[in-house]
Amino acid sequence: MLGKVISFGLKGIDGYKVEVECDLNKGLPKFEMVGLPDASVKESKERVTSAIKNSGFPFPNHKITVNLAPASTKKEGSQYDLAIACGLLVAEEVIIGSKINEYVLVGELSLNGEIKAVTGLLPLIISAKQMGFKKFIVPEGNKKEASFIEGVDVYSFYRLMDVVAYFNNKLVRLPDEKSVWQTADVVFDEDLCRVKGQYAAKRALEIAACGGHNILLWGPPGSGKTMMAKCLPSILPDLTFDEALEITKIHSIAGILDEKSGIVVSRPFRAPHHTATTVALTGGGKDAKPGEISLAHNGVLFLDEFPEYSRNALETLRQPIEDGKITIARANQTVEYPANFVLVASMNPCPCGNFGSKTLECTCSAGEIAKYLKKLSGPLMDRIDLKVDVDRVTYYDLRSQSREEMSAEVKERVNRARQIQNERYKGTKVYCNAKMNNKMIAKYCVLDADGEKLVESAYDKYNLSARGYNRILKVARTIADLDGSENILAGHVAEAIAYRSIDKF
Fold first, then answer.
1. Contact 458, 420 (CB under 8 A)
2. HSE value, Cβ hemisphere, 13 Å, CA-based, for 396
3. What angle do CA 468, 354, 235 make, to 5 degrees?
4. Which residues have C-beta within 8 Å of that of residue 235, sequence separation ≥ 6?
5. What is the CATH number of the domain that holds 249?
6. Residue 90 and residue 96: Cα distance in Å, rounded?
7. Which one of 415, 435, 455 terminates a domain?
8. What angle do the packed helices 449-461 and 466-482 form, to 10 degrees?
9. What's the structural domain count of the chain?
10. Per-residue pLDDT tens over the stretch 95-154
11. How far apart (Å, rounded) are the C-alpha atoms in residues 20 and 87?
12. Are residues 357 and 281 in the same domain?
């Protein structure tokens, strides 16, 4: 007898159909699995065998062959357990009828027949839906995650015996209720109102949040760089449902999704330590899992003590910053993950940290400073739109009782300006000024005569590259949006140039 059940696998964030074919033949009892299964898939033989027996069903006393088609694609993970078990029960005629052929089955089995949650279910269901599949059997632990997908019927189960009873029409089960997505009222650890002084840096953070621009905070230790970087999430624009789905896909694959919420409700803020390896940042490993830059998708990647990261690790950021994605190529597979993030970097200007300070004396030699800064390449620094000097706050500012602007007030301006950008780029994959391509720059970043003169002067004075020129235009466009101006004025251009003019590299 032959039993056939549909399941799905994942390659990166894209799912692909897997036909689980279970064949029972005469011969000595033996359980063979083919179709390029990895170790975790091969181990499902033991889980499936025990789960079927401990659920009270007869296990086939035949030569068993399970094929996972297409056989040319390597299968990874434990999500095929449920499909294999049901395929065997179809072949053994424990499950009767063709009802099962309408469903996609995903789930890991425990030895006692319980169905355990799996990683990557959300992107799997989305891909299956795009291929025309409408009904899904999933673990109870993934119920919340699956409930946000419209246009499909999801049935969550806790035990294998309940799935069998459902397919044999002995158990009535309605599709799970859908969940309504809404942003969370996040309480942030840091707020801009607690930052004393540093008005230029706070203005740069507002521009970065509004236009999705990368920013570098440069200054001596204790000047508030890290604190301000941690304030950035509190002023980022509200998360949209489409952005939340993209983030949830990645977090689900990485296995860090909160089962209770089932979906990401706030923008991620990732701050890996400076000892992080290249693979930790970009992703990879045996299973080509997403790294920090993908986990920061649609959010913030904060790199504190920027020059202390290994040069190889930092250089891998260049392509994702430009393309908004990272391609991980390994011997057995090549996968692509999205990586649209705002890079926030902070650093001291020299080993002692006092170079350029208005109040403290630098004790480093010219050679030591050059060696320290040499860790950061010119092409990488050219991709950072805003570079801000953050000197030590004065005692007067520190003890001042004057009211500082709260993050919520800044966020209102950011949301208004981001709404302008959403309308401007409607119907495209671009959602903020920093992601404009050259065609968009030519259309939306038209300068008047005064603006042209300023950019021309800056181009020669600071030896700007073509990329640096384009990034000045993008920042000027963001500043104009914050002012509610349809046209880019000379004042907007001058401010944008100021964030490049302190470039010490």
1. no
2. 0
3. 55
4. 192, 205, 206, 209, 407, 410, 411, 414
5. 3.40.50.300
6. 7
7. 435
8. 140
9. 2
10. 987 789 999 999 999 999 999 999 999 999 999 999 999 999 999 999 999 999 999 999
11. 7
12. yes
